[in-house]
Amino acid sequence: MENTKKILEVIRQELNTNPIAQEALSIAAAKAEELNYTPEQWEQAKISFMSALFYRLALDHDDIKRQIGADVWKLFNAEPAN
Q: Residue 41 domain-assigned?
């Protein structure tokens, strides 16, 4: 579980500092403004957007996918299927 927390933190930092992710977020913000999103709607959209980027980054790597999968199995007190 601790490894997954470290992985999540690294990916969160990447999303917050990566110029491409920041540019994509700026484009999304401009579109939200164009669509007259309320601050609450934008916050929800931003969370969804960042989550999609996170999963794309995280699940693109087999080692991260295995670690997260193993931690999820531990949460449910089950043995991982090999």
A: yes
Here the tokens at position 62 are: 């087999």
| Tokens encoding 8 | 């999540």
Q: From the first residue on, what is the mean pLDDT of each consecutive set of 10 residues in the chain (82 residues)?
A: 72 78 84 90 82 71 72 62 51
Cβ-based neighbours of 45, under 8 Å, separated by 6 or more:
28, 32, 37
38's torsion region: left (phi>0), alpha (psi -120 to 50) or beta? beta
Contact between 21 and 13 under an 8 Å Cβ cutoff? The reply is: no
* Residue 80 domain-assigned (yes or no): no
